[in-house]
């Protein structure tokens, strides 16, 4: 990946209007502080649905690079990336195709399977089908097809009497993914360019690593490095890099895995991983000797756009 070294002005895109707005604000503020500490002229742009307003703000600030700190739909799924590509403005993290594909869970899993990466079995069903009864053998997981940060993820276990779909705000005709639940250990690996950084094991008393576990103080415990023997540790690192490459990601990504004691299964790749005080990527970067400020610097130096 070619480094972009002629950088002075940076616009940080944050906020937005997805369900992950509050987390994006925290990530963006952290990036702003780090980039200002590195001597850049930084402008913050809180993204709205008004495309004309976004374009005007970018034309006014004239950034050499955009630091994309948006999370969730419209900021992580190729939409903002496409707009920046049209304006020929380099931006951090993955391009529009990799962003769109990774955000669409069924599409990403197809590419993982083609690359020989183990994934859990799944079915795509409507909300109406799921409400009628079990759509696969329990335990299984219900997931929105295109949300991040475990938004709307529900585990259906033996003994559950209520189908937890009413609070998701989905219509009966909407599609969701039902996925085999993989028991075992929760792991995650950050990828930076063409290298995996480390393996973290995540434990939580919430049952799984959901939105609250990710972003609430003491919501989870991060064990870094994960207590795996070298062969298993190296395999988790390799599978995560393979998943990053299978989607065509660039810059920083984070791969989430489950380990059942015999095999690793890729759950998803996050192309816009969080940069909050409880986030995993900055933690792994620091573990290998990269400060948060240097991580942000690397991201802007390796910013690109697709033209």
Textual characterization of the structure:
This protein is of the alpha+beta class and 307 residues long. It has 3 domains: 9-92, Rossmann fold, CATH 3.40.50; 101-118 and 184-294, ATP-grasp fold, B domain (D-amino Acid Aminotransferase, Chain A, domain 1), CATH 3.30.470.20; 122-180, Dna Ligase, domain 1 (2-Layer Sandwich), CATH 3.30.1490. The protein is 33% helix and 23% strand. It contains 10 helices and 12 strands. It has helices spanning 21-37, 51-61, 79-86, 96-103, 105-114, 127-132, 211-215, 230-246, 280-287, 292-301, and strands at 9-14, 41-46, 65-68, 122-126, 140-144, 154-156, 175-180, 185-192, 195-203, 221-223, 252-259, 264-270. The protein has a 5-stranded antiparallel beta sheet with strand order 10-9-8-11-12. Strand 11 and strand 12 (264-270) form a beta hairpin. Helix 1 crosses helix 10. The protein is globular and about 55 Å long. It starts with 8 loop residues before the first strand and ends in a 6-residue tail after the last helix.
């Amino acid at each position: 990946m070619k480094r972009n070294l002629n950088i002075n002005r940076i616009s940080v895109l944050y906020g937005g209007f997805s369900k992950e707005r509050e987390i994006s604000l925290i990530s963006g503020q952290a990036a702003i502080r780090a980039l200002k500490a590195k001597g850049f002229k930084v402008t913050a742009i809180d993204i709205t649905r008004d495309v004309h307003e976004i374009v005007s703000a970018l034309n006014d600030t004239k950034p050499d690079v955009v630091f994309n700190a948006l999370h969730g739909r419209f900021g992580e799924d190729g939409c903002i990336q496409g707009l920046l590509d049209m304006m020929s403005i380099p931006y951090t993290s993955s391009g529009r195709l990799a962003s769109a594909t990774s955000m669409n869970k069924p599409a990403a899993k197809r590419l993982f399977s083609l690359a020989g990466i183990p994934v859990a079995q799944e079915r795509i069903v409507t909300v109406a089908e799921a409400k009628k009864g079990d759509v696969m053998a329990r335990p299984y997981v219900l997931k929105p097809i295109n949300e991040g940060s475990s938004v709307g993820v529900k585990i259906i276990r033996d003994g559950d009497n209520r189908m937890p779909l009413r609070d998701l705000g989905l219509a009966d005709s909407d599609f969701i993914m039902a996925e085999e639940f993989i028991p075992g250990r929760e792991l995650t690996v950050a990828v930076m360019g063409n290298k995996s950084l480390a393996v973290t094991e995540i434990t939580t008393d919430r049952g799984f690593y959901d939105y609250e576990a990710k972003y609430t103080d003491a919501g989870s415990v991060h064990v870094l490095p994960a207590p795996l023997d070298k062969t298993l540790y190296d395999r988790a690192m390799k599978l995560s890099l393979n998943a990053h490459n299978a989607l065509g990601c660039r810059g920083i990504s984070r791969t989430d895995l489950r380990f059942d004691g015999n095999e690793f299964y890729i759950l998803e790749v996050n192309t816009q991983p969080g940069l909050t005080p409880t986030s995993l990527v900055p933690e792994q970067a620091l573990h290998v000797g990269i400060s948060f400020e240097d991580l942000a610097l690397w991201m802007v130096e390796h910013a690109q756009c697709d033209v």
